[in-house]
Task: inverse folding
């Protein structure tokens, strides 16, 4: 089970994605698109770096993760940075998250963790269910166009993304980039910004 794998990795301290700073793709997208402060759901928030940046920029943030260790660290980091965020141990696939509807959902590497179109479609459906009318979803996804010799995040093609999200979201932009990383050759990423479709 994917959630159990993440819990084990946090327990072992094997979390190369946890950088202690927000991902530049989030900062760039929010700034360039002039996304106005709103209620945000940070899915798979980890130790809270992206949530904290959003809160510092006047967004009202609820961060969720299945790892208790990650959430405890996120609470500490928010306190250290003197910002207000709500962090919850929760799973969007299993539970309705309190505080919805949200104006923006963000995930850095959650959507791509699911291996089949069907699993990713269910994830997209759950995200849509938590968003207000015309709500936005920004997802950072491992890019399958990268050939690599070392382990890295799961890789998905543009088609994988489209197949899963199209019933629920209009894709506003799908850009090839890379993840914020401490590695000299950061893994490539898709930066996908989507808008919730009107309910049919």
Result:
């Amino acid at each position: 089970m994917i959630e159990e794998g993440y819990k084990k990795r946090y327990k072992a301290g094997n979390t190369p994605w946890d950088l202690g700073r927000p991902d530049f793709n989030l900062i760039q997208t929010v700034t360039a698109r002039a996304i106005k402060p709103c209620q945000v759901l940070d899915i798979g928030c980890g130790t809270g770096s992206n949530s904290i940046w959003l809160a510092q920029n006047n967004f009202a943030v609820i961060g969720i993760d299945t790892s208790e260790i990650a959430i405890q660290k996120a609470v500490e980091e928010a306190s250290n940075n003197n910002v207000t965020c709500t962090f919850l141990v929760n799973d969007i696939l299993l539970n309705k998250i309190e505080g919805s509807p949200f104006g923006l959902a963000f995930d850095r590497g959650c959507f791509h963790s699911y291996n089949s179109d069907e699993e990713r479609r269910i994830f997209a459906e759950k995200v849509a269910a938590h968003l207000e009318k015309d709500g936005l979803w920004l997802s950072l996804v491992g890019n399958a166009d990268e050939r690599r010799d070392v382990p890295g995040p799961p890789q998905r093609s543009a088609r994988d993304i489209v197949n899963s999200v199209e019933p629920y979201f209009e894709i506003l932009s799908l850009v090839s980039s890379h993840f914020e990383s401490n590695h000299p050759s950061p893994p490539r990423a898709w930066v996908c910004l989507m808008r919730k479709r009107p309910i049919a």
